[in-house]
């Protein structure tokens, strides 16, 4: 018995929906649920048995102020992220004009994003070297202090690492903004020009409202990335000096693989997930006023 065209169409649509749904359940929702389960157990990561302890890991986590104080280190990355998005928007608006050589500038700004993160980390390790680093050498030639220990000073280390993210990801955000800017009808700008609107008025009344949803996406990626920083402090500082560059993720990895407390580490993972959700919600409702 042959199926009707409508029935065949439904079967095809359902089949195509089942594949991504199965992948989502397998690689996103199941690991998340398993993480919640592990967070309520005492497990060393090796033993086949997992002792159920309920909310004991969460009690230990919330009763240890030192663990949550590490989030203060992530604030430097959040600040760097705001600068990063602002610079990306500035460059996107600038390079969306008929600026001479704009394609070359686009390539130069975007190029750091395609570089390997480990290579970038080691490159900046040489740049920040207090004895023979290029940055201190330039500062010395300019008559400024050439004795700055960029990665050894507890007050500077997180900002130094945050600057690397600015350098690396500004181009990625810029490309996203450029795509959004090029989708804005040119007739709107022509009408604004006829009405005598200034560049700032045009940006506030046309450009910004048209790309506010894209700004929200970039802020989402930036803030979640700032909360989940791992490779830069892990490679360059190992959390030093004296734990001043530890992030919540590096601490989670340390508790899991160094101290063998996978239950507590899983609880930290769940808390981080919830905190990212809260921050993103606040961003949508307060900072960007919902983007609607």
UniProtKB/TrEMBL annotation:
PROSITE patterns: ABC_TM1 (PS50928). One of its GO terms (cellular component) is plasma membrane. Keywords: Cell membrane, Membrane, Transmembrane, Transmembrane helix, Transport. It is a multi-pass membrane protein. GO terms for biological process: transmembrane transport. It is found in: Cell membrane. The chain crosses the membrane at residues 12-30, 75-95, 107-128, 166-185, 206-227, 262-282. Belongs to the binding-protein-dependent transport system permease family. PANTHER family: ABC TRANSPORTER PERMEASE PROTEIN, INNER MEMBRANE ABC TRANSPORTER PERMEASE PROTEIN YCJO. This is ABC transporter permease. It comes from Paenibacillus pectinilyticus.
């Amino acid at each position: 018995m042959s199926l009707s065209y409508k029935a065949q169409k439904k079967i095809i649509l359902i089949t195509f929906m089942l594949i991504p749904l199965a992948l989502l359940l397998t690689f996103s929702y199941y690991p998340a649920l398993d993480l919640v389960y592990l967070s309520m157990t005492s497990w060393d990561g090796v033993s086949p048995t997992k002792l159920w302890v309920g909310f004991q890991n969460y009690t230990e986590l919330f009763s240890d102020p030192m663990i949550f104080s590490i989030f203060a280190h992530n604030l430097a990355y959040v600040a760097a992220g705001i600068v990063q998005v602002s610079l990306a928007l500035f460059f996107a608006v600038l390079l969306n004009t008929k600026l001479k050589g704009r394609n070359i500038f686009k390539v130069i700004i975007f190029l750091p994003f395609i570089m390997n993160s480990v290579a970038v980390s080691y490159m900046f390790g040489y740049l920040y070297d207090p004895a023979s680093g290029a940055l201190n050498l330039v500062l010395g030639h300019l008559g400024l202090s050439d004795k700055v220990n960029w990665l050894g000073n507890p007050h500077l280390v997180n900002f130094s690492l945050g600057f690397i993210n600015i350098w690396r990801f500004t181009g990625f955000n810029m490309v996203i903004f450029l795509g959004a800017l090029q989708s804005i009808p040119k007739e709107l700008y022509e009408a604004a020009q006829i009405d005598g609107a200034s560049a700032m008025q045009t940006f506030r009344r046309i450009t910004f409202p048209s790309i506010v949803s894209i700004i929200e996406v970039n802020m989402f990626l930036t803030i979640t990335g700032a909360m989940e920083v791992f490779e830069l402090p892990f490679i360059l500082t190992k959390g030093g000096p004296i734990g001043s560059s530890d992030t919540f993720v590096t601490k989670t990895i340390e508790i899991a693989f160094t101290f063998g407390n996978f239950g507590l580490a899983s609880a930290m993972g769940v808390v981080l997930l919830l905190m990212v959700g809260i921050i993103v919600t606040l961003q949508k409702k307060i900072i960007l006023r919902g983007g609607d």
